[in-house]
Amino acid sequence: MKNIPKFENQEQEIQFWSENDSTEFLDWEKSEQVVFTNLKPTMKSISIRLPEYLLVQLKTEANKLDIPYQSLMKIFIKNALDSKLTKQSKI
């Protein structure tokens, strides 16, 4: 195995890995899955236009669940994507 060089910054590391094959530096057969439980996903603000009636329905449902409507939107989007990805993996 080759030695991984020391990087001065993230850009150098990105450049290095974009030009090199990690199998020359790491033995992936010995790798283990790691879970970082305290990491928070990076959030990005977006703007979305919704019909007023849809926003009213969303806020009504969120109120029933006692959660912010933006959180409910995230749940709906996540569930829809998970469902779609599950269906695609069965094909």
Walk me through the structure.
The chain is an all-alpha fold. The model has no long low-confidence stretch (mean pLDDT 94). The protein has helices at 10-19, 52-65, 69-89. The chain has 2 domains: 1-31, no CATH class; 45-91, Arc Repressor Mutant (Orthogonal Bundle), CATH 1.10.1220. Helix 2 (52-65) crosses helix 3.
Give a short synopsis of this structure:
Helices cover 49% and strands 0% of the residues. It has 91 residues and is mainly alpha-helical.
Topology readout:
Layout: H1 10-19, H2 52-65, H3 69-89
Helix pairs in contact: 2-3
Name the features:
single chain, 91 residues, mainly alpha, Arc Repressor Mutant, 2 domains, 3 helices, 0% strand
At CATH level 3, the topology of the largest domain is Arc Repressor Mutant
**Rg, Å, rounded:** 21 Å
| Low-confidence residue ranges | none
CATH architecture of the largest domain: Orthogonal Bundle
Total of domains? 2
User: Could you give the order of the helices and strands?
Assistant: HHH
Q: Specify the biggest β-sheet.
A: none
CATH top-level class of the largest domain: Mainly Alpha
What is the strand content? under 5%
Tally of extended strands? 0
Note the overall shape.
Answer: elongated
